[in-house]
Amino acid sequence: MVFKSTAFLLLFFLLLTTCQGQEVAVSQDFNLRNDYAYDLVGKIGENIILYRDSGFAYKLELMDADLSYKKRAEIRFEKSKVDVIELVSRDSSFTIYYSYKDDGNTIISTRTFNENAEPIDSTVVYTEKTKVFKKKFELRESEDKRRVLLYSILSKDEINLIAIDQDSLSLIYDDVVTFEEFDLRLDFRSAIITNKAEVFLLLDKNNKRAKRDEHFVELNYVSPFVDDIQTLKVELKDLLSSDLEMFYDNYNEQVLVTGLYHDKNKLASQGYFFIRQNKTLFDSDPLATVISYKDEILQEVNGYSKDKDQDLQHFKIYDVVFRRDGGFILITEMNKELARRTYYNGYNRFNNERVGGGVWKDYYNENIILFAIKPSGLEHWTKVLHKKQFSQDDENIYSSFFAFKSPSRLRLVYNDEIKKNNTVSEYVIDPLGDYERNAVLNTDYQNLRLRFKDAIQISSNELLVPSQRSLILNLVKITY
Fold it and tell me: What is the pLDDT of residue 160?
């Protein structure tokens, strides 16, 4: 494996300790002592850009494709203090969406930069004229990054939807939608925008033991081409759901709602379910497909006989990968968090007084399970991929994995152990569920602590990962 780095000594160690098959580049150190936040803008043109927020100073760090440092650019907004909502990256430019107060109004504006971190456009996309701004907007972008959705829950039954064309930064529509039957603060689950600027809203009602016989989800379809909002209600009677998620397949133009289901304890699931709907048939009456975990999966994960444990503990949905044939792969992971309370950070049991600060936490991120579903809705294959990650008091930032997607392979890249000297491994899965486990690199003596859950895919064969140790940040690029 070939490594490129701005530091010769680091390059030497990398050459000595890495595995074969990839090319890895490491940036210089960035000191985060005065920063409040940072974000990976990604690969813009031939450069890689890092965004840094120091509260009242906003900076862009520019590197070439090998992560050799080029320059820093200061961002000057209309106000000294703004709230950055999100960064949306394109092939040759990127846009920062942000809000600020002006004469009692809230303004949402954009700044667009080219690959050299030079400003090329600035546009006001929304003005909130009420003196009380009830809730900040959240942003979702389409898969092709050409459409942007800003949404805000304004009240118990109202949500504001603003769709923007990213090419022209023009407003596609601005609607306030009312849901009289729901309390959006409790029942709203997610929103997505498609490549055609269509919006789907997912609501979940009565997902509790006392009302399980009245449980249902509702999908709402908002289109710039249709005046009325289309609504689809799907009954989930006697089914308690956990980790309910929504995804959209732009190739087949299908919306997918999926979740894990349980009987009494939401941390112990007995299987999964999904609702798949084509937007052209949105007025039909679909049923949820419910699939119980197979005995062999329960045995492989739990290590018990099939008569003893009929559930999976602490599993959550990580992502969905769509197949061109209309099927999909559901990716789940075991994710457990335990709080540790002691005499020093709990209550003194002798006099009932608080004697310490917060809570210490243990994090466990273990097995990954893949469920492949055919276009017919039948299960195609299921695979358990074993890993065992444990960490303490680190906010779980180094655990879990990153799903690197390509047309022919799915790579799940992760830290073998959560420690300074560590091996990075990957599972490589083909469309039929066959897989192999490889070592990607070794971080011994390299001062790298990789945050794979915060990585981004910057091309069909490149992955950009932040490495953070204390207040020092490096960017690491892995090329397959």
Answer: 93
Please list the residues that pair with 124 across neighbouring strands.
Answer: 109
Name the DSSP class of 459.
E
Long-range (24+ apart) CB contacts under 8 A made by 373-379 are 373/274, 373/327, 373/328, 373/329, 373/330, 374/325, 374/327, 375/323, 375/325, 375/326, 375/327, 377/274, 377/276, 377/289, 379/291
- Least Cα distance to 243 among 262, 229, 226 occurs for 262
Token output for 117: 């971190």
Question: In Å, what is the CA distance from 95 to each residue of 112, 118, 205, 251, 459?
Answer: 4, 11, 36, 25, 19
pLDDT beyond 70 at 156: yes
Q: Using 50, 70 and 90 to split pLDDT, how confident is the model at 396?
A: very high
Number of Cα atoms under 13 Å in the Cβ half of residue 412: 26
Average pLDDT over residues 271-291: 85
Residue 317 has which token pair? 């949905």
* Euclidean distance between CA atoms 379 and 328, whole angstroms: 10
Are the CB atoms for 66 and 47 separated by under 8 Å?
A: no
Strands (E), 194-327: 199-205, 216-222, 230-235, 240-249, 254-262, 268-278, 289-292, 312-313, 315-322
pLDDT above 80 (res 24)? yes
Query: Alpha-carbon torsion 81, 82, 86, 87, what sign?
Result: negative
Residues ≥6 apart with Cβ < 8 Å to 182: 157, 188, 203, 205, 218
Q: Residue 90 contacts by C-beta under 8 Å, 6 or more apart in sequence?
A: 44, 145, 166
* Averaged pLDDT, 236-250: 94
Q: How many residues belong to the chain?
A: 480
pLDDT of residue 307: 57
Q: What is the pLDDT of residues 170-197, one digit of tens each?
A: 999 999 999 999 999 999 999 999 999 9
Give the largest Cα separation in the chain, rounded: 68
Task: Give the residue carrying structure tokens 């490594």.
Answer: 3
Cβ atoms of 441 and 448 within 8 Å: the answer is no
Convert the pLDDT of each residue in 43-63 to its tens digit. 999 999 999 999 889 999 999
Average pLDDT over residues 153-159: 93
Query: How many whole angstroms separate alpha carbon 433 and alpha carbon 310?
Result: 24
Q: Which tokens belong to 452?
A: 């794979």
Percent above pLDDT 70 for the chain:
88
Asked whether 354 and 344 are in contact (CB, 8 A), the reply is no
Least confident stretch, 88-102, 291-305, 389-403: 291-305
